[in-house]
Amino acid sequence: MAYLADCLKLPKDTADKYRRQADDLKAAIQENCWDERDGFYYSVDLNLLPITNKPGHYFGTTFVLHKGHPRDYSCLIQRIEVWSGFMAMWAGIATPEQAKRMVAEHLDNQKTLGAPYGVRSLSKMEKMYGLYVSGNPSNWHGPIWGISNYIVFRGLLNYGFDAEATDMSNKTVALFGRDYEKCGALHEYYNPDTGEPINNIGFQDWNYLVLNMIAWREKRAVVQEF
Question: What average pLDDT does the segment 106-134 reach?
Answer without folding.
Answer: 97
